[in-house]
Write a structure and sequence with these properties.
It is built from nine helices and 16 strands. By secondary structure, the protein is α+β, with helices and mostly antiparallel strands. The protein starts with a strand and ends with a helix.
Length: 341
């Protein structure tokens, strides 16, 4: 079993994109790639991690190590066909993810016992929410992809038209209904996330489910038929009763919660003088305007974790891995340069 320190996930090369495309299209090539590939393990959608100092390392198994592990638990190599392709290195080492703890109704294989697996692997299956606070951005990207794909397969075992079990291709990039040939592809839900500004202050809000003291940018799922601009205007109006004036795209991020979302992050401004917030209490617990100084102080306190949260620090911002954090940081930098210009 080898351990990675987060140096594996960076922008893929041209060859890597082409190789992954080939493996998705060709079941035989994908099966062959498993022989020299590496496997990331999950148990009921929780990734296998190994505690190291203040963070986690991500263990990976070779095919023979995985076969040996399955053998110890009385399962054959056929189980490996449930794995999904999640990436590759520039050296064409394909990476796969396999969940040994899902109890799918159509799966031929039983779920393996978590604590025995952990003892055997000398590592633990940690929920993604807990892991999120300590993983680096490279590892988290790969694990987010893996979890999203494993979750999608688990919940798309049957054709919604015929009711028959669907069949996964080797890479796990699609499922097909054998009776009517309908092809199902993994899906993400688009979500807009907007940092609203009145020039000097930015608007942050919190839901009652957030950790104590945590405020974030306004977020909301796109409605069917909406474009990004319409979704931003609607969400801002719905949640805080304000009119968006100018809108600027910033960046995007795949986010695993609650299922699999594509977060589309934007900066927006309100018309001068139109800043009175009307909080929609069905959606939010609170919303308020924060000055640049307040935000700068809170950013200084936000590491990659929320662990420093305590009574003395009532105002906290999302962790570094969240695109909300990047939006807020960008706003601080922009207001700083406009102040000095
Ligand atoms: N990565 C980041 O920086 C951040 C990510 N987020 C994510 O954005 C997501 C959306 O934000 P919310 O304010 O909760 O959205 P929201 O304002 O649209 O409200 C959620 C409600 O929308 C409805 N809804 C419509 N389509 C849905 C779908 N496809 N899946 C689930 N619910 C749907 C449900 O009734 C749900 O209760 C959150 O799940 C959160 O994980 C939120 C803030 C920061
Ligand atoms: Mg919302």
């Amino acid at each position: 079993m080898s351990l990675y320190f987060g140096t594996i996930f960076r922008r893929k090369s041209f060859w890597c994109y082409r190789y992954l495309f080939e493996l998705r299209e060709d079941n035989d090539a994908c099966k062959k790639a498993q022989q020299t590939g590496a496997f990331y393990l999950f148990h009921d959608l929780a990734p296998l991690l190994q505690a190291s100092g203040r963070g986690y390392l991500v263990p990976r198994l070779s095919l023979s190590e995985l076969e040996g592990l399955l053998g110890k638990f009385g399962q054959g190599a056929q189980r490996i066909e449930e794995s999904v392709l999640i990436g590759c290195s520039d050296q064409h080492e394909a990476w796969f993810a396999l969940d040994l703890g899902l109890n799918s109704s159509s799966s031929k294989h039983a779920s393996l016992p978590k604590s025995e697996l952990e003892a055997e692997l000398k590592a633990s299956f940690i929920t993604m929410r807990k892991a999120l606070l300590q993983l680096n951005s490279m590892d988290s990207s790969l694990l987010f992809t893996a979890q999203a794909l494993l979750r999608w397969h688990d919940s798309h075992q049957f054709c919604s038209k015929s009711g028959q079990p669907t069949i996964k291709n080797m890479a796990g990039s699609k499922r097909v209904c054998p009776s009517n040939k309908i092809i199902y592809y993994p899906q993400m839900a688009p979500v807009v996330i907007t940092l609203l500004s009145d020039g000097a202050r930015c608007l942050l809000a919190r839901q009652s489910s957030f950790p104590k003291g945590l405020y974030s940018a306004l977020a909301g799922f796109c409605d069917i038929g909406e474009n990004v601009e319409e979704a931003v205007r609607r969400e801002v109006a719905e949640e805080v009763g304000l009119d968006v004036e100018r809108l600027q795209y910033s960046a995007s991020q795949h986010w695993p919660f609650p299922n699999s979302s594509l977060m589309i992050a934007c900066h927006a401004t309100v018309k001068p003088g139109q800043t009175e917030i009307q909080v929609n209490l069905r959606e939010l617990e609170a919303a308020a305007w924060f000055s640049r100084d307040e935000v700068v102080t809170a950013l200084r306190r936000t590491g990659s974790t929320l662990q420093q949260q305590n009574e003395a620090f009532p105002f906290l911002l999302p962790p570094k891995l969240a695109i909300a954090h990047q939006l807020i940081k960008e706003w601080v930098e922009q207001t700083c340069s406009s102040l000095t210009a």
